[in-house]
């Protein structure tokens, strides 16, 4: 797999993870908010972030297909995802939160502990399964920009051993 392709997958995986976190956090915040304007804004943010996440995951799927089927490439993809997810998996819930949680919730905010739980749930329920599905699926043929012809992933791309 070329260095460029590895970087695309790493950056796309980090983007998919980050956008997924943002979408899930906005949805969680929306679920607690009471102010109608805050609810409206959080609905829009959650939808926008979900669309960004979908695009990022689609990009990673494309980059994996472009990289080919070789086992060493799959291992590189798995390492790229592990690197992107390591900080999230290592996160721990804060031991305490300050302030009035009800006031934070009314205004669409999460406590530090709630945000940490939301992020850990995102890794367990969405990000990890998406990464696993992308790595487990056979590569799909690439389409030419016009959509008229299939393009096989290049076997001549450089491979990092």
From TrEMBL:
This is Uncharacterized protein. It comes from Sorangium cellulosum (Polyangium cellulosum). The lineage of its organism: Bacteria, Pseudomonadati, Myxococcota, Polyangia, Polyangiales. InterPro entries: Ferritin-like_SF. Residues 142-161 are annotated as: Disordered. It comes from the Bacteria.
């Amino acid at each position: 797999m070329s260095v460029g392709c590895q970087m695309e997958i790493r950056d796309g995986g980090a983007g998919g993870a980050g956008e997924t976190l943002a979408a899930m956090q906005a949805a969680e915040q929306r679920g607690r908010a009471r102010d109608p304007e805050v609810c409206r804004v959080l609905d829009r943010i959650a939808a926008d972030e979900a669309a960004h996440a979908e695009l990022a995951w689609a990009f990673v799927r494309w980059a994996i297909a472009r990289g080919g089927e070789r086992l060493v490439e799959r291992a590189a993809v798995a390492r790229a995802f592990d690197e992107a997810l390591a900080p999230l998996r290592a996160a721990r819930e804060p031991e305490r939160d300050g302030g009035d949680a009800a006031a934070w919730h009314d205004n669409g905010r999460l406590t530090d502990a709630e945000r940490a739980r939301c992020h850990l749930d995102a890794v367990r329920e969405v990000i990890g399964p998406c990464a696993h599905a992308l790595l487990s699926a056979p590569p799909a043929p690439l389409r030419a920009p016009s959509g008229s012809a299939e393009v096989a992933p290049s076997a001549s791309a450089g491979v990092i051993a």
